[in-house]
Design goal:
GO terms for molecular function: DNA binding; sigma factor activity. Belongs to the sigma-70 factor family. ECF subfamily. With 177 residues, the protein is mainly alpha-helical. Helix content is 73%, strand content 0%. It folds into 2 domains: 86 residues, RNA polymerase sigma factor, region 2, helix turn helix motif (Rna Polymerase Sigma Factor, Chain: A); 68 residues, Winged helix-like DNA-binding domain superfamily/Winged helix DNA-binding domain (Arc Repressor Mutant, subunit A), CATH 1.10.10.
């Protein structure tokens, strides 16, 4: 449903953007507020995130990541950019000054770090028990709620939450976080 809505956003459908927002804003807000540590500023940044989603929806590649992973990456990068921007003291701009380039593609070293992080995460995920791994993938990468997962996997909600908690603890230990 989310991937279909993002495809419609890429085609310029504003109603689909509302659907994407309704399905993901809670999770993306959590990502942004964790980085910003300021709820009011995080709300502003979240608006910027969805503006970027509107502009970049056509760039989404399902071969590279799930929709929620792609959206979380945009949210994370936008929040980090906002922190950097907030930390800078703006200098007065001269009339003849050139505007900053708007290239938002990550630098090669950033891509390499992400690739290494992804490989480590993949190895750590493979070490988890199957029920933990599946629950975490569905919750964090596919964006399903605990209730939706409980229904889909046909297990009690408490069991599902235990699987996710134990899986996250295992990932934390494996990743050394």
């Amino acid at each position: 449903m989310l991937q279909e809505a993002l495809g419609q956003v890429a085609a310029g459908n504003r109603t689909a953007l509302k659907t994407v927002y309704d399905l993901t804003s809670g999770k993306l807000y959590a990502v942004v507020v964790r980085i910003m540590r300021d709820r009011e500023r995080a709300e502003d940044v979240l608006q910027d995130v969805y503006l970027k989603v509107w502009d970049r929806a056509g760039r989404y590649d399902p071969e590279k990541a799930s929709v929620i992973t792609w959206l979380c990456t945009i949210a994370r990068n936008t929040a980090i950019d906002a922190l950097r921007s907030d930390a800078r003291v703006p200098a007065p701009m001269r009339d003849d000054a050139m505007p900053e380039p708007t290239d938002t593609d990550p630098l090669p070293d950033t891509l390499l770090c992400r690739q290494q992080d992804n490989e480590k995460l993949r190895r750590c995920m493979d070490e988890l028990k199957e029920d933990q791994r599946r629950s975490i993938r569905l919750a964090f990468f596919d964006g399903l709620t605990h209730s939706e997962l409980s229904e889909r996997l046909e297990v009690p909600l408490g069991t599902l939450k235990s699987w996710i908690r134990r899986g996250l603890n295992g990932l934390k230990a494996c990743l050394g976080a």
